[in-house]
Amino acid sequence: MTIAIWIIGLATIACVLARPFEKPEWMWASLGAFLLCVTGLENPRHAFQAFSSGLDVYLFLIGMMLISETAREAGVFDWLADWTLERAKGSPFRLFSLVYFVGVVVTIFLSNDATAVVLTPAVYACVRRARVKPLPALFACALVANAASFVFPLSNPANLVVYRERLPSLMTWLQQFGLASLISIGLTFLILSFVFRKEFKGDRIDSNLRRSTPLSSDGRLVIFTIGVVSAGLLYCSSRQIDLGLPTFTSAAVLVV
After folding, report:
1. Residue 192's pLDDT is what?
2. pLDDT tens digits along 160-185
């Protein structure tokens, strides 16, 4: 029995990584779980209990992704990327610094998944248009998604998974992780700045580049809503209220 569990588990992980037949990762993970249940290697009742115990995390993640996708559709992430390009004023290092700063803000208030999945493609398109080396900006997005993911409980869905019903209040969280998060964000920035120091000495960005499109009224509404939702989630966190349902409900209202 143990060998069979290992075989299914390793095969599932391999398929998630390799994505045979170009099928998405969730399909292989679900298939592996289904095989464990139908073969009797896992009690279906225990599997359902394990699934239902993560409901708050599912609602939180779905809500955050809905908010992020709505922001992407409204052009918020493209606008942010263009904003960094315009404010860089021809300096590759300033562009990198601004991208890092935007990544910190997005990670803190929209979770690290939004930074990795939604902000990064917008930043990549931006730096390609600026004709500068994309690696510094892409590494900034990738690593800040981890460095800033402990600023607030809502900054990383994994925080909800680890703590579950024992999630500390907001003030307790800040006391435990606030200083460490600031150090993590600062050290990551310094190390990346040192690693890519040669790239920053390259050609300057074309000063004639301008923002492609202004932020739409929908985009402004989304940003305002994100601010309200973030404030509400921080309040819920301070009261140790589960974040899943408020996040999902807020996202549903925003989409409507």
Report:
1. 97
2. 888 877 888 899 999 999 999 999 99
Please state, as a whole number, how many other Cβ atoms lie within 10 Å of the Cβ of residue 46: 10
**Closest among 59, 60, 50, 78 to 212, alpha carbons compared:** 78
10 Å Cβ neighbour count for 176?
12
The total of other beta-carbon atoms located within 10 Å of residue 17's CB is 9
Nearest Cα to 5, choosing from 57, 42, 54? 42
Q: What is the DSSP string of 195-254?
A: HTTTGGGSPPPPTT---SSPPPHHHHHHHHHHHHHHHHHHHHHHTT--SHHHHHHHHHHH
Return the axis-axis angle of helices 25-38 and 2-18, rounded to nearest 10°. Answer: 170
pTM of the model: 0.84
d(C-alpha 99, C-alpha 111), whole Å = 16
Can you read off the two tokens belonging to residue 73?
């559709």
